[in-house]
Specification:
The chain is α+β, with helices and mostly antiparallel strands and 360 residues long. It has two domains: 4-223, P-loop containing nucleotide triphosphate hydrolases (Rossmann fold); 237-350, no CATH class. The protein has eight helices and 20 strands. It is elongated, with a radius of gyration of 25 Å. The protein starts with a strand and ends in a 10-residue tail after the last strand.
Amino acid sequence: MGSLLLDGVGKRYGTAVAVERVDLDVRQGEMVALLGPSGCGKTTTLRMVAGFVAPTTGRVLIGGADVTQAPPHARDTGMVFQSYALFPHMTVAANVAFGLEMRKVGRAEREQRVREVLRLVRLEGLEERLPRQLSGGQQQRVALARALVVNPAVFLLDEPLSNLDAKLRGEVRMEIRALQQRLGLTTLIVTHDQEEALTMADRLVVMDRGRVRQVGTAEELYERPADPFVAGFVGRCNLVEGALEAPGAFRATTGALLPCAPGSAALGRRILALRPEHIALAPAPSPASNGAARLKAVTYLGALTEYHLELDGTPLLAIRPTPPADDPLRRLSPGDAVRLSWEASAARLLSAEPTDQQGA
């Protein structure tokens, strides 16, 4: 197994920038997720690692060796494509063995390694089936087996769960993570799904418009986002424009005065980031109550309930555990007055300007 190093890797198509610059060190046995919206450059970055796209700038190193100019088959990587890319006319065993054949592995060793990896992904007994005779989850595991059987130094996954239904996605997600940890695979995964990235990866790389906005653990990105984009993309977050008037006093552009941590930023224009779960609610005696918000909508989600609120013209979202039937909060309805509160330290002030390459 080896490590993966991206040293200033970037890609341009003429004057269009697909990836600005990526500096990233994926340690041996670590799983790192490239996370971001469609078109942010995450798949282009993965394909530069795989060798399918030539970088305009920078270097790709695997296990300390510079492979920037090496073709895909010489990079010691195993890749699982979004579409799985299985050969429809080949059996499961033949699909899995294909990479070994290309590497001129002898027949006896090839058959042994195919048996071992099919057992690893729980596909024993399906060796002679064709892809069309398999379920979506089974096809996904064939794609995993085909990438794993070559014993890659770096494991690459491009949106591997996007074609599965929600229930199966959760199951396969855990299977991939367990396999990766058990085998100690250095892994780079591309996803636009926050939950997928948060639950699978050791670290996350948040990208936007070809740039890396922040690199860190799930907790670091959620609790200490570098900028409003990261705060809004990783989890749900109230982002309020305004200015810090005095220590601990943030004035929203709507005029609402919101508490924040004293001394957390210089005075002036800022964006207040407040996670919905940090907002506590209590029924207010009347809409005219000082500091009361108006409830706009209530969404019941089972264990959790969403409360859409407006405080002096500022929209806010609160998410709380669903209260018991006899709790006054359970009887709230749109139009009711609600008193809001939160710990000042929970309201984080962010610069209105974007940041790049935080924590890489």
